[in-house]
Specification:
Elements: E1 2-11, E2 17-26, E3 31-44, E4 47-62, E5 97-100, H1 110-118, E6 135-139, E7 161-163, E8 166-169, E9 174-176, H2 179-189, H3 194-211
Parallel strand pairs: 6-9
Antiparallel strand pairs: 1-2, 2-3, 3-4, 5-6, 7-8, 8-9
Keywords: Metal-binding, Zinc, Zinc-finger
Domain RING-type: 88-129
GO molecular function, one term: zinc ion binding
């Protein structure tokens, strides 16, 4: 059985929606498994499809519902925040790599930012909604995270690959200061859905048959 504690939604680009759900799964032995789930509803024709569905198990706790009388149960005035300063505010996963634009907000992981820019074509900051034509991806080190204060220092029309001390990904207009992270994000952007590919092939085949 699942219990939903919170469900928050935030508008994204082109009528897309980012959804964050928190709750717990209750097993037969009354162990409550806390979780967070984040996914993106991306518009497609007259419906939506779910993209980047991230389910994260947070921890277990023994349920006291059957063993503690209701009169002695205490309900906290404030529920604990599921994401900390070291967690991505979108997927609630631990921040290892961050991506940010000229606004300087470093609270979203590079994977979520790349997904939003690539799939939803949403180039806005998740916090302040400022549009960022160019972003910078670096390792998350808290107060010691590398800061780019002047994004105009980046070239306007850089080639794909190494550009000075950085690596540039043209599909998301992102500069990386780590080669391995650049390669991983570039490979992720090349992934495609087999179902969508088959549908596109069927559509292309129908068009070719219609031309004869």
């Amino acid at each position: 059985m699942a219990e939903i504690e919170t469900a928050d939604a935030q508008d994204s680009y082109e009528k897309g929606v980012i959804v964050l759900v928190t709750g717990c799964l209750i097993a037969k032995d009354n162990v409550r498994k806390k979780f967070t789930q984040t996914f993106i509803l991306a518009p497609q024709d007259n419906s939506y499809f779910i993209f980047s569905d991230v389910f994260r198990h947070i921890g277990d706790s023994k349920s006291q519902i059957n063993s503690v009388p209701m009169a002695s149960m205490k309900i906290p005035h404030h529920l604990p925040r599921m994401a900390t300063n070291d967690d991505c505010i979108v997927c609630a996963d631990t921040l290892k790599w961050v991506a940010y634009g000229p606004c300087g907000h470093k609270e979203v992981c590079s994977t979520c930012v790349i997904h939003l820019r690539l799939v939803c074509e949403d180039r806005r900051c998740c916090l302040c909604k400022c549009e960022s034509n160019t972003i910078f991806v670096t390792r998350a080190l808290g107060d010691y995270t590398k800061a780019i204060n002047d994004f105009t220092a980046f070239p306007d029309d850089p080639p794909e690959g190494q550009v000075g001390p950085y690596w540039y990904h043209g599909g998301t207009q992102a500069f990386f200061d780590d080669l391995d992270q650049y390669k991983m994000m570039k490979a992720m952007c090349m992934l495609s859905c087999a179902v969508c590919q088959k549908n596109e092939q069927r559509t292309a085949g129908s068009k070719r048959r219609g031309e004869f």
